[in-house]
Each structure stands twice: as structure tokens, then as C-alpha cells.
Amino acid sequence: MKIIHCADLHLDSKMESNLSREKALQRKEELLKSFENLITVHAQKNSVGVIIIAGDLFDTLKSFQKTVKKQVFHLIQSHPEITFLYLKGNHDSESFFEAQERIPENLKFFSSEKWISYDFGKVCITGREITSFVPEDVYNELVLDSGRINIVVLHGEIVKSTGKSDAPFINLSKLKNKYIDYLALGHIHSYSCERLDKRGVFCYSGCLEGRGFDETGPKGYVLLDVDEEKNSVSQEFIETSIRKLYAPEINITNLEDYSDILNKISSDIDSISRKSLVKVILKGEVSEAADIMTESFARQLESDFFFIKVENQTEIKIDYEKYRNDISLKGEFVRTVESQNLPEEKKARIIIAGLKALSGKEV
User: Fold this and answer.
1) CA neighbor of 53 nearest in space, from 234, 192, 219, 185
2) What residues form DSSP beta bridges with 185?
3) Secondary element (H or E) of residue 334
4) Among 2, 1, 10, 4, which Cα is nearest to 153's?
């Protein structure tokens, strides 16, 4: 039996924080296209019988009118051979499907009131929707049959995670030794898979498409292969994203000339696919005379990528010696600090920080 575990699709996200209106609309359509491909290409190719959506299928309540009726609802309804198990996440709403005249028989839900289980032969898929704090009773009420192949679905942030914090925390220690073979998680937008206990693993599938530059890296879903005879579950991460997002850090230390900096950027991002979204982050120490023109760099490179921006995070390498005899506020500051009874190293740090502040630079 083949099962797909996906999560955090956030369909109908605005996508307008970086993109023009036209490109934002294109990316919104691509998010929906990725969901369609998941069903019509990947699920059908692998003879998948169940698709688990571990939360945040939608981004806001407005998604209901635009997405459910026109696309998502139709896709689910037109593939009755696949059972869709939809566990709502912290972005989802109870009312997404309430206005539909008829819920497709192949679309199943979980509950926030109790654990709900669905059986597929020897496989038991159990989930619970948790929107805030996880009471101790939630873990105690999870009772699984050791003789079944148990898949558990939750949406939230595991205690040791350093990711987002707007969803409930899940205590993995409370889920150990409960006969879980695979813990399907949603909420963190990057794939990860680790051992839960001697029997099972816990996995975040990540999202199908990155939406911002905090979502770089491979995006896709997890394909589960269940062997009922061997009582085993194997998992494989499948990358599916239509476009990737990159945020390369480029060191331009000691470069001053505009052309040299532009050539360095071009060279370092040359291997990135031209259909990608790129945020170049300039790093290193440069002189005050360095010709860093981020918007101009982006304009020079914009025809090579779907989207590109350039961000300057360089440090100014200040030669404070030249201000020692300068008749200016900066010169007076340097002379004042040098007259203090302080270690030379500390004087240097104070002078550099002060000159940055006087130049309007971030200290």
C-alpha cells in the first residue's frame, strides 16, 4: 500500500511581499498546480491509495471561496480512488467545507475532541486536531494496537524544534513506546525525519512550494510504502516544487568597483536555475568607497531569473587613522576616545562602532 504524507500547502497565499501582482498571481496558480500534480501525477504514478494532509491546506479563510469550490474540491471529488485524510492546522478554519452541499465520500476529517482512526486493511491512521496547548490527557487517550501498522497524524511544533511558534508544542517523549510506526507531522516547512523510538520515526514532510526566502531548500512530500506482510513502513522524500528559492551569501570583501561586485554576484549564482527566486545577500568587509547599489544589481540580473533581489549585509571596514587629524565631528570623536585610559583593542572597537553610528550605519 502506498500513502502520501504532505502538509503546509497554504493554498491561495497572497505571495505579494516580494513579487509584482502579475508574478504573485502566477505563483498562486503554481501552488495550486503543485497540489494538482501531487494527485494527477505522483499519486497516480505510484498507485497511491491515501493522501494525508497534515494541516494548513489553506492560508486564510478567504481561501474558502477562491480555492475550495473552484479547484481543491473538484480535484478531490474527481479522484474517488484516493482517500484524502485532512487534519486541520493552525491556519485552517472549521468553516472551510461547511458551505459545500455535499462532501465527497473520499474526503475524511479528524476531530479536536478526540482521536479519530481510519482503517485500511492492516493499516490504522489516527489523528487529532490540536489548536493550542496540548493537555496531558491527549497523549494518554492515544491507545494503539501493537499488532497494527500505526500511522499517527498531528500538526504542531515538536518541543525541541527551533522553528515557528504559532502552533501547539508536541512532546515527543509522550508519544514514545505507543506502537507508532510513522508519525506524520505538519507545521515546519522543511523536510526532516528522525527516529521516534525503536519502532517508529517522526517526519515533517515540509511544504510543496516555498513561498518566501525563509523557505529555501528542497520542497515536496513523503511517499510511504507499507508492507503489511512484513509489518513495515518505509519512507522516501520526493521533491516536487515547480520553482525553488535560494538565498546565497556572497562575500565581496575588498571589492569596491561596481562592475567587480556585479561580476562576483553573477559568477556565484550562475549555477542556479533561471526559473528560480533568488535573494542575494552580500557579506564581508568593504571600504566606505565601495560602490554597492543593490537595486541596480537586481535590475541587471532580473532577466535571468523569475525573481531576484539583492540585500546588503556587508560591514564597513573603517580606517579610523585618517580621521585622527580631521576637523570634523568624527575627528573629534576619534581624538576623544584615543585620549581615554583604555586598552588599545577596546579603543579600536569603540571608535569603529562610533564612526559607523555617525555615518548612519547599523552598529
Assistant:
1) 185
2) 154, 204
3) helix 329-338
4) 4
pLDDT band for 101, please (50, 70, 90 cuts): low
Taking 80 as the threshold, does the pLDDT of residue 64 lie above it? no
SS3 of residue 50 by DSSP: strand
Grid coordinates standing for 304?
535571468
Collapsing DSSP to helix, strand or coil, 86 comes out as strand
Q: What is the DSSP annotation of 88-151?
A: --TT--TTTTTT-SS--TTEEE--SSS-EEEEETTEEEEE----S---HHHHHT----TTSEEE
Indicate the SS3 state at residue 223: strand
pTM of the model: 0.85
Number of other CB atoms surrounding residue 208 within 10 Å: 26
CA-wise closest residue to 7 among 154, 159, 170: 154
196, 180 Cβ separation under 8 angstroms: yes
11 Cβ neighbours under 8 A, 6+ residues apart: 31, 32, 35, 57, 58, 59, 63, 67, 71, 72
Q: How far is residue 134's CA from residue 142's CA, in Å, rounded to a whole number?
A: 13
